[in-house]
Design goal:
This protein is of the alpha+beta class and about 750 residues long. About 35% of the residues lie in helices and about 25% in strands. The chain contains 18 helices and 25 strands. Strands 6, 7, 8, 9, 10, 11, 12, 13, 14, 15, 16 and 17 form a twelve-stranded antiparallel beta sheet that branches. A five-stranded antiparallel beta sheet has the order 1-2-3-4-5, with no helix packed on it. The chain has a four-stranded antiparallel beta sheet with strand order 20-21-22-25, with no helix packed on it. Strand 14 and strand 15 form a beta hairpin.
Length: about 750
């Protein structure tokens, strides 16, 4: 037999094998399956929540089809017309594909096919996006991240209409659009694709999803495990200063599951970006479960993907809004489309926990797939149970040993007070320099706030919808947070590489007694030669209308320093128990490290043993009582100095300052009390209940704080600051009285 004939036989065998594999693949097989579609169709008209969700999507897609297909040449940043049009296109494509499968109406398949063919015609002509701001520019969008978003959603649309599209059109769409698209955001953008970050998660999943649809094992392996040789130097950074590559770094989807998630499901970038990344994490996991069940992806790393949904739901206030830790937009909540999908998928693949149904019921819509139908059926059958958010300590780091975030809640009747103390790692490029910072909530109201990010997402007028320079000069700086600043310099000098090496250490987390819940942590690296310990306790005490928050900070340094402690409150200032001076001309509070963005509105040198500052917000009164020493200073400040484009919110703060000291102790109590009714114009219980606050004992091993109410009831709280062993016995004499107890802390009430 000739060599030519042998070659022909080999090619025929290879072609037949490939043809068989492609043609034998069943579609849809990602989020929807053939069997799942049959089951959903059999339930249509019988399951109210699913039917309502379907009707809403149908109305939306029909309106877009009526407008016609619009695929403009890309030119804009976020918020601009071309950006928003292409974003709208990928969302509508995915929904149109689902409607074709569930309703069987070919107009939806035609719409998807025609738009894909139009993109296949445009894509080969596109250079890199004209906006040059990103470290990894896209083609359709200004950054490859948004290109990956597009492909994650459009892959699902293609899966739904795959069998409807002719082989010739499929060949054009795949060869001119999907294959070069997948290569561009991976091989062509290794700095985007081959890192541990929410960006690369989207990239990995985009390549993996289209690989599954096209039955391309090369793309799937690339998605799961990353590029084998990326040519990137170790230590490479993005344009925000975030690390792209480190020695020995895992890559691909598995790497992005392994590294950022702690064993508790906390995502190191913080809840805002965890919410954003949950869609690709879980939608790809669902696709892998449907098409590659042998991977057992939902069992990977002890079920971390399902566990992460619970962690994220716990990282919300009573209104479902995520705590804005690190870069986080205030107001983002579990009502977002990413969390609708996440809750549905976690319910179906995580054991059908009925408590998730109560979240889905609040969300008021479901994903149009098998998981959404499962949730809607559960709600129809009244299986839902309350999702109880309890006090929880979420570890950070892949090994759970990189600090964490503690959430302490006290719920009485319909009211909930929530303390969030962050003692976590840097949080990658979206991290802030805010070791031992905290925020505090009364139901859904910020009492003492975390500023979050400085960005107006997708608002073109504000920097193209991108991060503003004030995110670096203000929002990330330590002074923007409720924590200690030494010598007007941010933690780790505001240096990302240094900050990424360290995390705070938990000293104590004890919520076993619902009336005395405690978190305490140490930070020994934010300032060389200085140790910090912060202990916060939410205490429910007799004679107080609501629980109060006790805050103790102890500092010890090798040198004398200036220490500032801010409290960023919201609302209207009511009163202070000391005289303060208000200048006729406002000046910035400082020159750098965020201080330049604060107006100094007034100041005082304190002389009394206690300072009291009260404010009113959303109908509740708050009083901050602090232990002070002679020559301590307090400043009333307002955000917004050196802000020519009005990019910052003009919100108030209080800063306590101690100068020229090696050892310093800050002790405060925050009360929530009273009510003001704007209709009746009546104020009730508008004054503090604290008569005095004192440090009654302090040495290298213990600190004792006494809180005396106006009725004469004394609360004594003592902490063993060096020994946190649960069964350790302690004996201490305070004011000629002996106290004996077991464990790290002691609390008693003296009437």
């Amino acid at each position: 037999m000739s060599i030519i004939n042998k070659t022909r036989i080999v090619l025929i065998i290879v072609f037949t094998f490939l043809h068989f594999n492609v043609e034998s693949q069943v579609h849809p097989s990602l989020v929807l399956t053939k069997e799942g579609v049959r089951e959903i169709r059999s339930q249509l008209g019988k399951v109210p929540l699913f039917d309502a969700s379907l009707a809403d999507v149908k109305k939306e897609v029909d309106a877009e089809i009526a407008l016609g297909i619009d695929i403009p040449v890309p030119k804009d940043f976020s918020g601009g017309y071309t950006h928003e049009r292409h974003k709208r296109n990928f969302l509508i494509l995915e929904r149109a594909g689902v409607l074709y499968q569930l309703l069987g109406d070919e107009k939806y398949a035609i719409y998807v096919r025609d738009m894909l063919l139009a993109y296949a015609k445009l894509y080969p002509t596109l250079p890199l996006h004209p906006q040059e701001r990103s470290y990894a520019r896209g083609k359709i969008f200004w950054q490859a991240l948004n290109d990956a978003n597009w492909l994650v959603y459009v892959s699902q649309a293609y899966d739904c209409v795959y069998d409807f599209i002719s082989p010739a059109d499929r060949a054009k769409i795949e060869n001119d659009l999907f294959k070069p698209f997948a290569d561009f955001i991976s091989i062509g953008s290794p700095q985007f694709f081959n890192r541990v970050h929410n960006h690369s998660t989207w990239g990995n999943v985009a390549v993996g999803m289209i690989g599954l649809v096209m039955n391309d094992e090369v793309l799937l392996d690339r998605a799961l495990n990353g590029l084998k040789n990326d040519g990137l130097p170790a230590g490479m950074k993005d344009n925000d200063g975030g690390l792209i590559k480190k020695e020995g770094q895992k890559t691909g989807f598995f790497g992005n599951v392994d590294e950022p998630f702690s064993p508790d499901g906390y995502y190191t970038e913080g809840p805002y970006y965890q919410r954003y990344a949950m869609y690709p994490f879980l939608i790809f996991a669902q696709a892998l479960q449907n098409s590659k069940p042998d991977l057992k992806i939902f069992e990977y790393k002890k079920g971390i993907l399902i566990k992460s949904v619970y962690a994220l739901l716990n990282l919300t206030n009573s209104e479902g809004e995520f705590f804005p830790l690190n870069d986080g937009q205030k107001g983002m909540s579990y009502y977002s489309r990413e969390l609708v999908s996440a809750v549905d998928i976690a319910y179906l693949y995580g054991g059908k926990d009925p408590s998730l149904l109560s979240i889905a019921e609040k969300q008021g819509r479901v994903q149009l797939g098998n998981s959404g139908m499962a949730v809607a059926l559960g709600i129809k059958n009244n299986l839902q149970k309350p999702f109880e958010k309890k006090s929880i300590d979420l570890s950070d780091g892949a090994d759970g040993k990189q600090g964490g975030v503690a959430i302490i809640r006290n719920k009485t009747n319909e009211d909930e007070l929530t303390l969030v103390m962050k003692y976590a790692s840097q949080g990658l490029s979206h991290g802030h320099y805010d070791k031992l910072s905290f925020s505090y909530y009364n139901n859904g109201t910020d009492v003492l706030q975390d500023y979050g990010l400085a960005r107006f997402v997708n608002i073109e007028q504000k920097g193209g919808g991108n991060y503003l320079k004030e995110n670096t000069t203000w929002a990330k700086q330590t002074i923007a947070h409720n924590t200690i600043i030494q010598n007007e310099t941010s933690h780790f000098g505001g240096d990302f590489e240094t900050g990424s090496k360290f995390a705070s250490e938990k000293y104590l987390f004890d919520v076993s007694n619902p009336k005395v819940q405690i978190i305490s942590a140490n930070e020994n690296n934010a300032y060389p030669g200085t140790t910090m310990q912060r202990t916060m306790a939410l205490i429910q005490e007799e004679g107080f209308e609501k629980p109060f928050l006790l805050d103790i900070i102890q500092l010890d340094s090798k040198t004398a320093n200036q220490y500032d402690l801010p409290f960023y409150y919201l609302g209207q200032f009511m009163s202070a128990n000391f005289a303060y001076e208000t200048p006729k001309t406002l000046e910035p509070f400082g020159k750098a490290n965020g201080y330049q963005h604060l107006w100094k509105e007034s100041s005082a040198i304190l002389t009394a043993a206690n300072s009291k500052i009260s404010w009113l917000n959303e109908g509740s009164f708050y009083t901050l009582t602090s232990v002070t020493q002679p020559n301590d200073e307090v400043f009333f400040v307002r955000i917004g100095a050196n802000d020519p484009n009005f990019n910052l919110r003009k919100e108030p703060g209080i800063i306590f300052r101690k100068k020229n000291t090696q050892k310093a102790t800050f002790v405060s109590v925050l009360e929530t009390h009273g009510n003001y009714n704007k209709v009746t114009e009546l104020a009730t219980n508008s004054s503090s209940n604290i008569a005095s606050l004192n440090v009654v004992y302090e040495d290298p091993n213990y600190i004792g704080v006494e809180i005396k109410s106006k009725s004469g009831v004394v609360t004594l709280f003592v902490l063993a600051t060096k020994n946190n062993i649960a069964n350790q016995k302690h004996r201490l004499q305070i004011n000629n009285k002996n106290y004996n107890w077991v464990g790290p802390y002691y609390k008693t009430t003296i009437k």
